[in-house]
Design a protein that fits this description.
Layout: E1 3-8, E2 11-16, E3 27-33, H1 51-57, E4 65-69, H2 80-95, E5 98-108, H3 110-121, E6 129-132, E7 135-136, E8 148-153, E9 172-173, H4 174-180, E10 185-189, H5 197-201, H6 204-210
Parallel strand pairs: 3-4, 3-5, 5-6, 6-8, 8-10
Antiparallel strand pairs: 1-2, 2-4, 7-9
Length: about 220
């Protein structure tokens, strides 16, 4: 199977292993963080939205490992959810030849919020960050040092591009975070709502940029 199940701390996560994998060179690794609608412990439903469907549609040529941990929640990758994510990286480095300089993080909605959080909490760990319709804490802006690309829909009502997150008032939308991090790349889709991830992950420019980053 293109995605392989693994278990850490009693929790199931999924790993995409490129069919072209060889041990003669090191490989980039991308962690994908899903939205709140995919929270759970079944180990499966978080593969149905966002990056995993794109990877599966392009599995023969996708040039990187992908780890997809499932967030138990209730909200964001914190506590054990964060530890599973971090431990899964170590486990991948033990099992395959992963390039430690090319470990990147991307997420949508809840996962985009957590991408901001983890980008600030572990600034020296990531080669790149790609945030899709997420919100971040203004106080974290100065701690995010990895190359960052933020994507947002102009008419997103779930997480507005500007102003506070409706569920977490300490977080503001992607447009505001981009203003606080001037070196960040920012793409806003005109007239688009919250559900922009298929368009984002299908954009070749994202992959040209992300896979070119090194820590």
């Amino acid at each position: 199977m293109p995605f392989q199940k693994r278990t850490i701390l009693g929790r199931t996560y999924q790993v995409f292993v490129p069919p072209t994998y060889v041990t003669s060179r090191s490989w980039p690794l991308i962690l994908f963080l899903h939205g709140v609608g995919e929270n759970g412990t079944d180990g499966e439903k978080h593969l149905k939205i966002g990056l995993p469907p794109y990877v599966l549609a392009n599995e023969a040529t996708f040039p990187a490992f992908v780890i997809a941990p499932q967030c138990k929640g209730p909200w964001k990758y914190e506590g054990q959810d964060e530890q599973v994510l971090l431990d899964s990286i170590i486990a991948a480095q033990r099992e395959w030849r992963i390039d430690a300089r090319r470990i990147s993080l991307t997420g949508l909605s809840q996962g985009g919020c957590s991408t901001f959080d983890l980008g600030a909490r572990y600034p020296d760990r990531w080669a790149a960050l790609a945030v899709v319709c997420g919100a971040g804490r203004p106080s974290d802006a100065g701690r995010i040092t990895a190359p960052l690309w933020i994507f947002h829909g102009e008419r997103d009502e779930v997480i507005p591009p500007s102003g506070p997150h409706q569920w977490d008032k300490s977080n503001v939308g992607g447009r505001d975070m981009a203003r606080l991090i001037p070196r960040a790349k920012y793409t806003e889709y005109p007239d688009a709502d919250h559900f922009i991830w298929d368009q984002v992950y299908a954009d070749p420019a994202l992959w040209d940029w992300l896979l070119d980053q090194k820590r």
